[in-house]
Structure formats: structure tokens, C-alpha cells
Design a protein that fits this description.
The complex is a heterotrimer. Chain B is of the alpha/beta class. Helices cover 34% and strands 13% of the residues of chain B. Chain C contains four helices and eleven strands. Classes of the chains: A alpha+beta, B alpha/beta, C alpha/beta.
């Protein structure tokens, strides 16, 4: 259980300070979730390339692991390597099929995980508070126009890096989700996905939301339709924020079990579990309202 | 000679139930709690290992064995201090008669212990007659009154109870008398269904804010308890502790109820033995064992059950059914009245009918007269005091000068399941099974 | 008239400041920069008017008796929960569970209400000038729910004796909820209530009281022994 946040800068000017806005929003919610914090940020990068964030694993030798993975990644044209904490970030050639890349990178170790890939998307998440996230990654300096984030109180999953949010729609570039609530038909859905060869990295029910949406988008559904189908196909409680390279949206479950408020002006859209997160990050005279049961909203950049 | 043989699966009782459902189109509602023969690990599967050569027992009477119990030390300005580690749990006025509620209050006070309100708010007579009174805030919010709340010694935020976790309460129309209806703001004679969920918070993250509200409402003075029906105990206890509870109450499957669907009482929730072990493990794993107090409930019958629960990690126990039995529940008196409701002494779980032959779970003034308050209060006091003596006797025999010093290591498991559940060696093996 | 600046202060400090002022017989208090904090003005038990100059978080005005709270922004979940008497007004919108379990008093929401408006109400009145969301009036026992705009789905589900009025459309009726005709004089009473509590500018854009639909419990769930199987199957 946790607090989620999202922000989209509608203005044309500037590079956007999504990092600092999300950090301020997360800090305002920190009492909800001291166990882990994470963000999915969408920056602007040169075309035809992907950014990858790879988790180096839990064996303690991050530098050694980074070297191994670098060798593998270079086969895919990777360059601009940067290691921060347990993450290795690099850039490589855009491709239609990420499977070989993911398979080879993750073969480097049992606990190696490709955390995100996208033209714009970068996910960083770790154990500890938003303040600690900022200390490790300096996210307040990240330039971009939209993003989502989450700060979490651990419930049933182990508190570790992979089990934090946001979750990447694994294998589908630029798709990220954050979820507040509990999917009660998670195990059933997971078993069906696993039958088709999809791998789950955690025991966290939120992961299935990302897998579900990635599946729908691959089948050709547009984002709104994919989020709409969550309402009938996922059981339990959810307020979810979904982001792609060009969109930000939210969906609420049938029973409006989890809070989610939003504000929209000509300049921005802000969404969060509580209004306190929005007021803590954005000054000005605007109204905030709660989403309704079964409501889906998508904003395009 | 051939004998008549009953089917093990379609036993006589099962045949009756199926046929009753076929006739009525209704599912069964009754009171009391699980009636199933307990084939799962219970406190009876543990035995104490008193002192022999390696440890020295305390003499009875002369060598003190303290029973003082303090609850709510984590955040509250005024933790509650009890003379004994056995308390009376929340049972509603509505499910119980006024005489029953007053008797429990007086009896608990006389024993130096606490009483708890129940679904329906606080009775004036309850506050007047209680030494320490815990105020329950349930999903229904019947009778919730800020002024009463501020007169309580602790607030118990109830998420669920052991007899029927995951569902709300039920008071059938015949017990919704004029006075009950008024207290609960309901039409007279109508079945009262309590909601399964609280109206203004739905998850542990919102509950954090609710706990803060209750503290603001009571000036941060009194302890806040969170009460859980034993289901996913390990996770729930961690969440309740993280939500800021001073005390966590875990109510096991063997807990009682005035009325609820039979299937809930029989087939939901964890047995109390398993619940106390999971609860302690949860607190240990988040480093709050000893800081957050634990109250265990659910079929505690005597000082032995209580001592074992304390040894496994509880700071105190609630009793419900046992206290009603002390009041005269199931006593062999007024026997034709038991028969009139389809029961018999020692086989009565018909609280839901409102026709309790001994005046406990009824709103009928004539029946209630059969429960004479002063005598009943004395019986409650006696039970609490004897239970305390039993705990002390066992604690002394294990070399403890304080009942709260009882530990899991003071016991051995009589069965493999109990060994696995409690992490205690199986008798004769020195081995813990299932670890 | 006293002011409290909430900037940089905890809810506990702010509420203590409120209590201090109330103890000094202050009758008007303004809280500036509330930042949508939770639990503001909880358990205020005196006749005092508190203005929240901005948004409030959860449980604003919860457990109050006699006080009057006015929120200029929006409110989070559980607005005025378990209020005994008094008035709580919000100029913006309210989150889920607005007027949850209130026992008396009046809650007025100028904007919209989210899910579970008036859930488990035991008395009092809640008025929403805008629309309300899912399952308004759920298990309402007594009191009145008035929605001038549209009501969401499962409206007035599983109620006891709460009476609801809707000026706009009803998404769908909840379990055991029925539309009933108003009694003689009831429309006039409703009109009086609306005029008393809604500012003129807001009232004028809403329907006439006589055009509101009245919704009450159908009473089919009131006793377990009634064999309306389909109703029970849906309800349980």
C-alpha cells in the first residue's frame, strides 16, 4: 500500500523539470510509504535509440557486474555507460524485438534485471525514502515533461529493489505503471501469463498490471481501451497511473476503493493519491478533485 | 449382526443441513462460534516444562509472581495499567442484555481488569461500572459519540473479529428492541446488518491517517488498539504496527459471536494458536516485539490457555465466551426454555434467537431478570481471579517471578503440527519440526 | 478573529492551536496555508467558526459537535465523519466517504462528491450541489442525502431509513432502492433546505425541489427470513 504521483507538463517551452516536481510530490506523501520509492521519468533523447536501466543484482559486487554487463550490452551497440548505485544506465540502438537483448543481459546473473527500456523512459527505484532516492540518483536534476512515481509501505512482498514500483511493462518500450491497491485475481492471471512464457520478476501483484497492459498494447489496443479493460479483467482494488512515451493516464476500479485526485490547468496535469502531494509541489490557484469509480482519463503530450 | 452405519461424509448433521436449506432457501445463522471438533493444533497440543534440576521453581503464595500488565506504552501518554493479564473483550449491547454488560463491567473492575464496549457504542452504566474501559470503533459506527470516546481509557479500532473475519456483524430483528434501535439509529424490529468495511478508510495506508484522527480526537492521551480477525495475520500485524497501533489485538478462529452465518464461523480464519505465533513473528521481523503490545483472543477457556498464549508472545488475553459462560451461559437451569429454542444446556449456541434462557443474549426484560447483576459480577470476578491464579501457578513452576516472563522455551509440543507452528521442539525428540 | 498559519506545522500543532484559541473563547478562526493536511479541526466541540483557507485532506471536521467548518478548497476522504452536530461546508469537491456515519448536523458540498457519499449515515443532512459518485447513501440509516446534480451508480444501496433526493439523473439504483413519490409538503421542505444552505448563485442553477426524485429503501432486505432469493443473491 502506498502513494502514487504523476505529472505532465503541457507547456511547449523548456525541457521540463519533471524530476524535481515528482520528488516534491513524493516527499509530501512519504508518510505513506517509508519502505521504497521510485520514479519513471520521460526525458528527451536523440531519435532511434533506447535508454536502458539495468539492475546489477544483489551479489554486492556492482562494479564487477557492471563490467560483465557492459561487455554483453556492447554487442547491441550500447554506449554512454554510467553506473549509479545498483544500476547501470546506457544507450543502445532502437529495435523492434527486445527479447534477445533482455535474455542476454539477464543471463549475466540470476538477480540481474532489465528494469526499463524506452526511447524516453527511465525507471529508478530503490529501498528507502524519496530523500534517499534523490541522494542516490539526483532525480531533481532530470529534465523531462512527464513521469510517474510511487512511495511504498511494504505489504506482502519482500522489500527489495525489484519489488518496488514503478513497474515497466516488461519488454514493451516506454510503458510504466504505478499501482495503489491489491489485485485479488493476481495469482490466476499470473499463472495464465506464465503458461505463455512470460516471466515475472517479483511476487508483487502490481507487476501483473504492467504485464496486462503490455499485452493489450501488443494486441493493438490503444492506451485508453487497454486501461478500460482493466476495470473488467482485474479484480480487487486499484488506482493506477500509466505512462507511455507520449501519454499519462489514470484508471480507478469499479468500487472506487483507493483514493486518487487530480488537477488540470492549461499548463499541467497532476495526479496523486492525496491532494497534499499536489499542493506540496505546485503553487497556484487551481482546483483538485477526486476521480470517480471506473473512471479512465488519458492525456496526450 | 450388521449395524446401522452413518456416512462419514454425508453425516446425519450434514443431511439435516442440506434438507433445511432445501426447505427454506436460507443459509444458517447462529451464535457462539465454531462448533467443529478441533482437529487442528490448539493450545492443548502444548505442555509446560516446569523447573526440575536446571531451573528453580518459586514457592506459591510467598514468592511473588507479578501479574501487572501495562498496555499502550508505544505512543500513548496514558497507557492502561491492569492488575491481571486477562480482560473482557468487546461484545455489543444488543447481542448482550444490559444486565450482562453491567455484570461484565463490575466483575472486570473488581478483578482489576478492563471491559470493552462493543458494536453499538458506550453505555452510561458501562462507563460508571468499569475500572478501565476500552472503546470499540467498528465498521458499523453504531452509537459512536465523540464525548463517549473521550471518556474511554483506550480506543480499539476493529477491522474484524475471529469468528467471522472479512464480514460484518448481524443482529436479527427480534433483538432490535426499541432501546437498541434508538442506540443504533435503526428502525425497530429490522435485521441489523453491519458493513464489512469501515466507511471512511479502506486500506492500511488510509488507516494510518485514521489512527492519527483518533489520536487527535483524544489529545494523544490514550492507547490506540487495532483489532484484527485472524486471517493473513503475519502481514496484517506488520501493517497495523506500521500504521501506528500501540496495541494489536488478534482474534482467532475459535472466537465467539452473537450471530453470524455458520459457514463463516466454521471455515474462515486462522486458529488462535497459529495466530499468536504469526503475530509474534511479524512483530519480531519488523523489530517492534516488546514495543507494540499484543492481545490474543479466540476461545481462551482458562488460565492454561492464557498462560500458553502469553508464553508464545501475548501481553494479555481477551475472553468473551468464557466470561459469558461464567455469567451462566449453557448452565443447566431453566431447562425447558433451552428445549423451547431447540437447544439444551451444554449444547446451546442459540444467541441469535434472542431467547437466551439465562438472560445474557436477549433483550427480553423478563428473561434478563434471570441474570442478577451482583451475583453475576461476582462470578465474572471469580473466573478472572482463578484464571490469574492458574497463570501464576504455571509461571512459578517455570521459575518466573512475573507471568510476562513466560517464554516459548518453557513449553514442548505434543504434536508435530504444534511443533511446526510454534517453533517448539516435539516431546521426546529435541527437534523442531517444519523449520 | 484569529489566524493560524499552517505553513511548516504539523496537524497536531495546528489542532492544538485551534484548541487553545477555542479555550480562550475565540469564535472565528482562519487556518492559512493548510496544504491539504489531514485531520484538521478534528473533534472541535464548541460553537466556533473555522475557515480553512485552502484545501483540507482526510477527516476534516471529523467527530465535531456544534462547530462550523468552512473549507475554501477541496476536501479529502471522510469529510465530517461521525459529526454529532454543526455545519461543514466545502467550496470545492469532496473525496470519498463525505459525511460518512454522521449523526446530525449538515454537510454542504458546493462541488462534486466522490464515492460513498453519506455512507452509514445515522442522522443529519448532506447536500451536494454538483454530482455524486458510486454507491452514495450506502447502508444509510437515518438522515437525508440531497444531490442537486447527477447521482452515480448503485445509488442508495442497501439503505435503512435514510431519504435521498436527486435533481439530475441517477446512474442506476442500488440494491433495494426505489423511487418514491414525495409526500404533501415534502417538496416545500426540500426547497427550504436548499435555499437555506446553498448560496443563491449556486441554487439558481439547480432544479426546483418539486423536480427532484425521491429515493428510499424498498425494505426487501430488512428481514433475513423474507425469501426474496434474487435480492439476497445480489446483495450478498
Amino acid at each position: 500500500m502506498c502513494g502514487i504521483v504523476g505529472y505532465l507538463d503541457k507547456t511547449a517551452a523548456g525541457d521540463g523539470n519533471i524530476g524535481s516536481v515528482l520528488l516534491a510530490m513524493l516527499n509530501a506523501l512519504a508518510c505513506r510509504g517509508p519502505d521504497s520509492a521510485g520514479v519513471a521519468l520521460f526525458g528527451d533523447h536523440p531519435p532511434h535509440q533506447f535508454v536502458a536501466q539495468v539492475k546489477l543484482g544483489d551479489n554486492g559486487d556492482d562494479a564487477g557486474r557492471a563490467r560483465e554487463i557492459r561487455v554483453i550490452a556492447e554487442k547491441f551497440g550500447a554506449h554512454e555507460f554510467a553506473q549509479t548505485g545498483a544500476y547501470l544506465r546506457f544507450v543502445f540502438g532502437e529495435t523492434d524485438n527486445l527479447k534477445p537483448f533482455i535474455t542476454e543481459i539477464e543471463a549475466a546473473g540470476k538477480d540481474v534485471e532489465v528494469v526499463s527500456v524506452g526511447r524516453r523512459l527511465e525507471i529508478v527505484k530503490q529501498v528507502g525514502s524519496p530523500t534517499r532516492l534523490e541522494q542516490t540518483f539526483g532525480i531533481s536534476g532530470f529534465l523531462g515533461k512527464h513521469g510517474i512515481g510511487q512511495t511504498r509501505l511494504s505489504t506482502e512482498s519482500v522489500v527489495d529493489l525489484s519489488h518496488s514500483q514503478p513497474f515497466w511493462g516488461h519488454g514493451y518500450p516506454d510503458l510504466a505503471i504505478v499501482h495503489n491497491g491489491h489485485i485479488t485475481n493476481y495469482h490466476q492471471l499470473r499463472r495464465r501469463y506464465e503458461q505463455t512464457g512470460i516471466h515475472f520478476y517479483t511476487e508483487n501483484d502490481s507487476e501483473v498490471v504492467a504485464i496486462f497492459l503490455a499485452g493489450k498494447l501488443r494486441e493493438g489496443a490503444d492506451l485508453r481501451a487497454a486501461m478500460q479493460s482493466m476495470i473488467t479483467e482485474l479484480d480487487g482494488s486499484f488506482s493506477c497511473l500509466v505512462a507511455t512515451d507520449s501519454a499519462l493516464g489514470f484508471v480507478k476500479d469499479t468500487f472506487s476503493f483507493k483514493p486518487l485526485v487530480f488537477a488540470e490547468t492549461d499548463d499541467f496535469v497532476a495526479v496523486a493519491t492525496e491532494e497534499i502531494a499536489i499542493r506540496g509541489a505546485i503553487q497556484g490557484d487551481f482546483t483538485v478533485r477526486e476521480g470517480q469509480a471506473k473512471e479512465v482519463r488519458v492525456w496526450q503530450r | 449382526m450388521s449395524e446401522l452405519q452413518n456416512s462419514g461424509i454425508f453425516a446425519p448433521r450434514v443431511i439435516e443441513e442440506i434438507q433445511a436449506k432445501a426447505e427454506s432457501g436460507l443459509y444458517s445463522i447462529r451464535g457462539f462460534g465454531t462448533l467443529r471438533e478441533r482437529r487442528w493444533a490448539t493450545f492443548d497440543d502444548l505442555t509446560f516444562l516446569p523447573c526440575s534440576l536446571t531451573r528453580i521453581p518459586l514457592e506459591g503464595y510467598r514468592e511473588k509472581c507479578s501479574t501487572k500488565t501495562v498496555l499502550g506504552t508505544r505512543f500513548a501518554k496514558k497507557p492502561i495499567e491492569l492488575d491481571i493479564p486477562v480482560m473482557i473483550t468487546g461484545m455489543s449491547w444488543g447481542a448482550l442484555s444490559l444486565n450482562a454488560k453491567v455484570s461484565l463491567a463490575k466483575g472486570a473492575a473488581a478483578a482489576g481488569s478492563s471491559n470493552t464496549t462493543g458494536d453499538g457504542g458506550m453505555l452510561k452504566a458501562e462507563r460508571e461500572n468499569s475500572r478501565t474501559l476500552i472503546y470499540e470503533v467498528l465498521p458499523s459506527r453504531y452509537g459512536i459519540n465523540i464525548h463517549d470516546m473521550r471518556m474511554a481509557d483506550a480506543i480499539e479500532l476493529t477491522i474484524g473479529q475471529g469468528a467471522k473475519p472479512g464480514t460484518g456483524g448481524l443482529l436479527l430483528g427480534s433483538k432490535v428492541s426499541d432501546r437498541i434501535a434508538q442506540q443504533r439509529d435503526l428502525p425497530i424490529g429490522v435485521d441489523q446488518r453491519s458493513p464489512a468495511r469501515h466507511p471512511d478508510f479502506l486500506g492500511p495506508d488510509d488507516m494510518i491517517i485514521k489512527v492519527e484522527e483518533l489520536r487527535e480526537a483524544t489529545d494523544w492521551q490514550v492507547p490506540i488498539f487495532i483489532k484484527l480477525g485472524a486471517s493473513r495475520v503475519y502481514d496484517d500485524v506488520k501493517l497495523a504496527a506500521k500504521a501506528g497501533a500501540d496495541v494489536i489485538v488478534v482474534d482467532g478462529m475459535e472466537g465467539g459471536t452473537g450471530a453470524s452465518p455458520a459457514i463463516f464461523q466454521e471455515h474462515t480464519g486462522l486458529p488462535t494458536l497459529a495466530a499468536v505465533c504469526e503475530a509474534r513473528a511479524a512483530l519480531q521481523d519488523i523489530g517492534l516485539y516488546g514495543e507494540v503490545q499484543l492481545i490474543i483472543a479466540g476461545g481462551i477457556r482458562d488460565g492454561v490457555d492464557a498462560a500458553k498464549a502469553i508464553a508464545l508472545g501475548a501481553d494479555a488475553c481477551y475472553i468473551g465466551t468464557a466470561s459469558l459462560i461464567a455469567l451462566n451461559c449453557n448452565k443447566p437451569i431453566y431447562e425447558e426454555d433451552y428445549r423451547a429454542i431447540g437447544a439444551a444446556p451444554h449444547a446451546c449456541h442459540h444467541c441469535h434467537t434472542g431467547r437466551c434462557p439465562v438472560g445474557i443474549t436477549t433483550q427480553d426484560p423478563e428473561l434478563m431478570k434471570r441474570l442478577e447483576v451482583e451475583q453475576a459480577a461476582e462470578r465474572v470476578r471469580n473466573l478472572l481471579q482463578v484464571m490469574t491464579l492458574e497463570i501464576q501457578m504455571l509461571a512459578r513452576s517455570c521459575g518466573k517471578s512475573d507471568v510476562h516472563h513466560l517464554e516459548p522455551e518453557d513449553m514442548a509440543a505434543l504434536t508435530i503440527e504444534a511443533s511446526a507452528i510454534c517453533g517448539i521442539p516435539l516431546v521426546g525428540t529435541r527437534k523442531v519440526f517444519g523449520s | 478573529m484569529a489566524e493560524i498559519d499552517a505553513m511548516g506545522r504539523t496537524t497536531r500543532e495546528i489542532n492544538n492551536a485551534i484548541r487553545q484559541l477555542v479555550a480562550e473563547s475565540c469564535k472565528e478562526i482562519t487556518v492559512r496555508n493548510p496544504g491539504a493536511r489531514h485531520n484538521l479541526a478534528v473533534a472541535v466541540l464548541e460553537d466556533v467558526h473555522i475557515r480553512v483557507a485552502g484545501s483540507a485532506g482526510y477527516y476534516c471536521g471529523g467527530l465535531i459537535d456544534r462547530a462550523s467548518i468552512e473549507i475554501e478548497g477541496s476536501a479529502g476522504w471522510g469529510l465530517a465523519e461521525s459529526m454529532l452536530s454543526g455545519t461543514v461546508r466545502v467550496h470545492g469537491s469532496a473525496g470519498s466517504g463525505a459525511a460518512a456515519a454522521i449523526r446530525g448536523g449538515t454537510v454542504v458540498i458546493h462541488g462534486d462528491a466522490a464515492a460513498r457519499l453519506g455512507v452509514s449515515m445515522k442522522g443529519g443532512t448532506v447536500i451536494v450541489a454538483g454530482n455524486c459518485g458510486y454507491m452514495a447513501g450506502f447502508m444509510g440509516q437515518k438522515g437525508t442525502v440531497i444531490v442537486c446534480g447527477d447521482a452515480g451508480e448503485a445509488f442508495a444501496d442497501s439503505m435503512y431509513a435514510t431519504v435521498c433526493y436527486v435533481g439530475g439523473k441517477i446512474g442506476n439504483l442500488g440494491t433495494d432502492a426505489v423511487v418514491a413519490p414525495m409526500e404533501p409538503g415534502e417538496a416545500e421542505q426540500l426547497e427550504k433546505t436548499l435555499n437555506s444552505y446553498l448560496p443563491k448563485s449556486l441554487r439558481s442553477s439547480k432544479p426546483a425541489a418539486a423536480d427532484f426524485k425521491k429515493v428510499v429503501a424498498g425494505r426487501k432486505l430488512w428481514n433475513f427470513d423474507k425469501r426474496e432469493w434474487r435480492i439476497w443473491q445480489e446483495a450478498l
